[in-house]
Amino acid sequence: MASKSLNRAILIGNLTRDPELKYTPAGTAVCTFGVATNRSWTTADGSTKEDVQYHRIVAWQKLAELCGKLLTKGRKIYLEGRLTYRTFTGKDGQQRSITEIVLDDFIVFSDGKRFAETTGEKSVASNEETTVVKEETKKEPSKESGEETVNPDDIPF
Q1: Which CB contacts under 8 angstroms, 24+ apart, belong to 74-77?
Q2: Which residue of 3, 18, 22, 118 lies most exposed, with the fewest beta carbons within 10 A?
Q3: Cα–Cα nearest to 66, from 141, 131, 138
Q4: Could you give the CA distance from residue 40 to residue 145 in angstroms, rounded to a whole number?
Q5: Cα(147)–Cα(154) distance, rounded to whole angstroms?
């Protein structure tokens, strides 16, 4: 019996560059972009220090296409994914290793006007709009299973 394990990365940060959407020779969409996370703290002498970490994010298939449409440099994003490590040989012949987060789902935080312009949707919140995007991996519920499909427009709040 295999033991249970968990490989999960959760970040809230800002996009460091516009997403780069490409397609593999087989036609699979792949999108890469960077996210920066910041932290600050006060030292014993009272001065404030800051630290920035940069993360490489990779999205595949339909999620990659959504990233290409919805994300732009500077936007704040909440994302979830899994860590992957890979090695490759650089152009100079040196062996290199890289750490990436393979995206599972994300939420984009943006002002309502900018969001409405890019997606054609109306802003619900007055100051800030969030877009929730999740990778569609589950099947639609069947009527035979007794599960009911809920339309988000039918929710009164």
Answers
A1: 74/14, 74/15, 75/14, 75/15, 75/108, 75/109, 75/110, 76/12, 76/13, 76/14, 76/108, 76/109, 76/110, 77/11, 77/12, 77/13, 77/14, 77/15, 77/35, 77/106, 77/107, 77/108, 77/109
A2: 3
A3: 131
A4: 50
A5: 16
Q: Residue 90 — very low, low, confident or very high, per pLDDT cuts 50/70/90?
A: confident
**Domain 9-40+49-104 is in which class?**
mainly beta
11: its two tokens: 């970040």
pTM for this structure? Answer: 0.67
Residue that has been written with the tokens 């249970």 in this structure: 4
Amino acid at the residue 85: Y
